[in-house]
Design goal:
Blueprint (H helix, E strand, L loop, with lengths): L4 E7 L5 E2 L4 E3 L6 H10 L16 H4 L2 E8 L5 H19 L7 E3 L6 E5 L6 E2 L12 E2 L2 E7 L5 E8 L8 H11 L6 E3 L21 H12 L1
Parallel strand pairs: 1-9, 3-11, 4-5, 4-6, 6-10
Antiparallel strand pairs: 1-2, 7-8, 9-10
């Protein structure tokens, strides 16, 4: 199943977009080094990084707050409840890796705001009220983070439209939260279709195992 959301990263210090391609195609199993560099800096196997390596500071990573700060009146209430539950479940999954990263859910000025908007699919965003976000293209959902000159992530936002199937929500939320750690590039490779949260062609993964777990630990323990 093809994923229907996009990942975009924006430099605050120069207000330009990075990571125009949100996945890289490969074939066969990748080494740990190649897998990590692909998801962390958009490096094709054996090639240089295309994007900056960014992460939350060690102090901030120990308590990243995330929460729903907007629910439009017509947004499906069932989906909203499932998304709220998935935020907690995904946070627990990430914390279980013992990588020095933990999420706390809160609706009061979270580091990562989640907007549940009744917004048309495959259009330009409008009405978010967030500078640098309106005017960007959205399919069914969109993720965006900002970082400072030290390449430390400072804040993020996830916009979700009503076009996400309930059965895909748990996997989608886990992927977006994992990518909010700075692991922002997906992989298109049949080998990883049913084994990696970073697979471009699957919404089935709800656990961080194998090379997914390795990538998170390496990003925050190296």
């Amino acid at each position: 199943m093809t994923k229907i959301w996009l990942t975009l990263v924006t430099w605050v210090i120069c207000a330009s977009a990075a990571g125009a391609q949100d996945y890289i195609e490969t074939n066969g199993p990748l080494s740990d080094d190649d897998f990590y560099r692909l998801v962390a800096c958009a490096a094709p196997p054996g090639q240089r990084c295309r994007d900056a390596i960014v992460r939350w500071s060690p102090r901030a990573a120990r308590n990243i707050t995330i929460g729903i700060t907007r629910i439009d009146d017509s947004f499906p209430r069932r989906n909203a409840r499932l998304i709220q539950t998935a935020l907690t479940t995904a946070g627990q999954e990430i914390a279980a890796l013992n990588a020095g990263v933990a999420f706390t859910t809160t609706n009061t000025r979270p580091d990562i705001r989640v907007l549940l908007m009744d917004h048309p699919q495959n259009t330009r965003l409008r009405g978010t009220g967030i500078p640098g976000l309106d005017g960007n293209f959205i399919e069914a959902a969109r993720f965006q983070i900002w970082w400072n000159g030290d390449r430390h992530i400072t804040r993020g936002v996830i916009v979700i439209t009503p076009h996400i199937r309930p059965s895909d929500i748990r996997s989608m939320v886990l992927e977006e939260m994992t990518q909010s750690l700075g692991l922002m590039t997906d992989i298109r490779n049949p080998t990883y279709a049913n084994s990696s949260i970073f697979s471009q062609d699957s919404n089935a993964i709800t656990r961080l195992q194998g090379q997914d777990a390795m990538a998170v630990r390496r990003h925050y323990q190296s």
